[in-house]
Design brief:
The protein has 447 residues and is of the alpha+beta class. 15% of the residues lie in helices and 38% in strands. The protein folds into three domains: 141 residues, no CATH class; 131 residues, no CATH class; 157 residues, no CATH class.
Length: 447
Amino acid sequence: MQSLKLGIAVAVCALVLPLAAHAACVKVERSSTLMNAPTGSSALALWLDEGSGTWLANLPTPAIAGNPVVISDQDVTDVTTAVTANQAKRKQLRLVFVDAAKSPVPTAQKYEFALPAKDPKAEVDACIMTSATTDGGGGQKTGATVLPADGEICTRLADLYPLPKHERWVIFNSKGTLCATSYPLHQSDVLRFGLALRKGESPPAEFDVIPSGCTKPTGEVRVQGTLPSVLLQDAPVPGSKLPGVPQDDLRRHGRLLECESDDVKVKVKVDALSGPEYTLELFGRTTARLNVGVLNSKLRDRDFGLRAEAGGNVITDKAAIERGPEYVAMVVVQGLPHYVRQGYAYQGRDMVHDHGYADRLGLALSFGLKDPAKRFGLGLSFEVARGVSLVAVHEWVKRNRLDGVTVDSSFAGAAGDIPTRQEWAKGWSFGLSLDSAFFTAAFSGKK
């Protein structure tokens, strides 16, 4: 009987010890979660556990006492760099919470870690990530917690909650990590912020968005909506016991942001946790473009003179009678069908991503390069290649015409005395237009 008990004890130890060996092992990859930072923590650091130990570097993700620490992309990069530089002592590398003096917090555990991008697969698979929750007495008790929503969940939630035209999602998880955005983000889009929660995760009492670098066409930031910054659907009372959400959920923030700047910086605060700052790159929109075109037009400016014939002079038209090239400047308002369908809600064309037929069809207004006041037209433009468009315009041209005499009639006076008057002629002309950038590059010598 005694032997049986001893055998069972040995077997239990054989099962438990391998688990204990990996109980403090963390997989260092995006959105991995460590246990709550202990009191006195200033940062999560890389540590060389050799002799009395050596501090190597602090990771950029904030370590706030009582809050879980979520691994970011930059953390992964920094750890990878450290592993590469200390490959000979890889087995002694640890993660540990340190205080402001860069010394390990007395209550902190030194974590072994596996780096999926660098370590052998067998070691990565053997690494068991653990986390902790805070018990009612303020102490730590070990146990699995629900990880924050990852990119896949955030993207799926964005698809489940479609937005109106020109509104775009910017979604964070409960640790302040940017996990999904609509693509592409444009200038003048209405940016709507969301908080993604994984099934079973407790919703925070506060979710605030902190933007910077946003400029408006009016010169100031405009915040739409009347909801307060502390906004969550069914937000619990601070300090109450927070139940986990029954399924993956997306909570909308009340702040709407609309910017015309290229880069907008934004970070969020979830309860006491302030996430890292992210830069949102906004693609520009174009309402109209300036082109230079050549039209095959029969509306030529006429120039009358005299020709000697049969002992006298007859009136002649020195300009070409047939169609010929006329050079015009052209303003093309792009995306014409969108204006028909959306009216003022249409914000303009994204020249990088918008290449549908409706995007490339535009309203064309042409003006003569020689004398804009005497030649203008209105018609359609269709982009056949980037910056190259076919155009058809109905032109109005103010030109000379004979007054009381005709071409080939005899005239005894000088050419300057030929009676003429101005008239408006009109007709269709067709041609090709090029983005003015082509000419700017050609005449400035730039390639």
